[in-house]
Design goal:
- The protein has about 425 residues and is an alpha/beta fold.
- The protein has two domains: about 150 residues, D-Maltodextrin-Binding Protein, domain 2 (3-Layer(aba) Sandwich); about 210 residues, 3-Layer(aba) Sandwich (D-Maltodextrin-Binding Protein, domain 2).
- The protein contains 18 helices and 15 strands.
- The strands form four sheets. It has a five-stranded mixed sheet with strand order 2-1-3-13-6, with helices on one face. It has a four-stranded mixed sheet with strand order 14-7-12-15. A four-stranded mixed sheet has the order 9-10-8-11.
- Helix 2 links the parallel strand 1 and strand 2.
- The longest helix is centred in the first third of the chain and has 17 residues.
- The chain is globular, with a radius of gyration of 24 Å.
- The N and C termini lie far apart (about 80 Å).
- About 45% of the residues are buried.
Length: about 425
């Protein structure tokens, strides 16, 4: 064999040996739980792949869950002492329960807080300690089918009275005004949060949380009345409280043109791109309408921080898990994630190319206030009561006063301590 060929073979062996874990090197494993779907899932998997290339002695086991199933499975895993090393949350009260139980690794000295938008990082900060890193923020506009609106000469409504007129036109033409699958309860909760804000302003919720006010405030009763007005006016599809959001039953009504509007988070863009790409040019969005004599600023938005990624306190390799978090919140991950999901980057200085995402970002920039989802802010039991009572409002099983009183009763048990 020629010396050149021998030299190349030796060099190749040296290179391969350097890239592989040595026989004495421990093969480490990290588990990562998330709820990403479609392109979002692919982007997260690509981030994990980049991490593994940088750490060839580490294998990341990825487990993707459906949204609502995850909310049960993670607490069970945490309580059973077998949590994933890195896990998804929405920050706020949901993550706070695990933080309070000592089940989350403190990242305060491990991450650069200046990289993140303050409003996003706040959702993962408890008593001044950073317990998770945010990837993106979402907002909830009212999506609408431009073709349906144009066909019936409808303009996006800015007020409640205009919305009622739009609904009347749609109903006359056998079009369902709003797509809604409320089996999962949080979908209907968007309406309650917006209506309470539009009626009473952003301080109504904060005062109730701080116990300077209450959850049976007149604004909550009035919000319930507006919800039941929508139900009785035929705003939603038949059997909507039994339809499943996770399986896309509401989206199919919207895609098909059977429903004209859809109150849903900005991640809906990811659903469209994954399920019905040609639909992207046919949709637009507008802010939730103002109500008569409302005290709330019409620019106020409902939204949240998601995902927030944290490390469990029992993680065997926290330093490596921190490195994975850095990859998951790198610009290489955040930019495509935000654009494909329709989310606002939680990382500072990210330029967005997608026009719809840019417009959503402008909505946030111009908003007077961002109301974080109640079920991400409230303690879990109170959050569940919020969803249950709201679903009962939609089902006409509770009066607005009964729902508000039930919510306040649970709040006294949970918050007045």
């Amino acid at each position: 064999m020629k010396k050149t060929g021998l030299f190349m073979m030796v060099a190749l062996l040296v290179f391969l040996t350097a890239c592989m874990p040595s026989a004495g090197t421990e093969q480490k494993t990290l588990t990562f739980w998330h709820i990403g779907i479609g392109k979002e899932r692919t982007i997260l998997e690509e981030a994990v792949k980049r991490f593994e290339e940088k750490h060839p002695d580490v294998k990341v086991e990825i487990v993707a869950h459906q949204n609502d199933a995850y909310k049960t499975k993670l607490p069970v895993a945490m309580g059973g002492g077998n949590p994933p090393d890195i896990f998804h949350s929405w920050g706020g009260g949901w993550l706070g329960e695990f933080v309070e139980a000592g089940q989350v690794y403190d990242l305060t000295d491990q991450v650069d807080a200046d990289r993140f938008a303050p409003a996003a990082l706040e959702a993962a900060t408890f008593d001044g300690k950073i317990m998770g890193v945010p990837l993106a923020m979402d907002v909830v506009p009212v999506w609408y089918n431009k073709g349906v609106f144009e066909k019936y000469d409808i303009e996006p409504p800015e007020t409640w009275d205009e919305l009622m007129q739009v609904m009347e036109t749609l109903k006359k033409n056998d079009v369902i005004p709003f797509a809604l699958a409320n089996k999962t309860k949080w979908t209907g909760a968007f309406y309650l949060m917006y209506l309470a804000d539009r009626v009473g302003g952003e301080q109504v919720f904060q005062n109730a949380m701080d116990r300077k006010g209450s959850f049976d405030h007149p604004a909550y009763v009035k919000a319930g009345e507006y919800i039941q007005q929508l139900v009785k006016a035929g705003a939603f599809p038949e059997g909507f409280n039994g339809l499943d959001e996770d399986t896309g039953q509401s989206r199919q009504l919207f895609y098909s043109g059977k429903a004209a509007m859809y109150v849903m988070g900005s991640w809906f863009l990811n659903n469209i791109q994954d399920e019905n790409p040609e639909m992207e040019k046919k949709v637009d969005f507008f802010p939730f309408p103002a109500v008569p004599d409302g005290k709330g600023d019409p620019s106020n938005l409902v939204g949240g921080v998601s995902p927030v990624y944290s490390i469990s306190a029992s993680c065997k390799y926290p330093d490596l898990a921190v490195e994975l978090l850095k990859e998951l919140t790198s610009e290489e991950t955040v930019k495509p994630f935000a654009e494909h999901r329709g989310a606002i980057p939680a990382l500072k200085g990210i330029e967005i190319d997608d026009e719809s995402v840019q417009r959503l970002k402008e909505m946030v920039d111009q908003a007077n206030y961002l109301q974080i989802y109640y079920d991400q802010t409230l303690p879990p039991e109170l959050a569940e009561e919020h969803k249950n009572t709201t679903q009962s409002l939609f089902g006409l099983k509770m009066s607005p006063k009964e729902a508000a009183k039930a919510m306040e009763k649970k709040a006294k048990e949970q918050l007045d301590q």
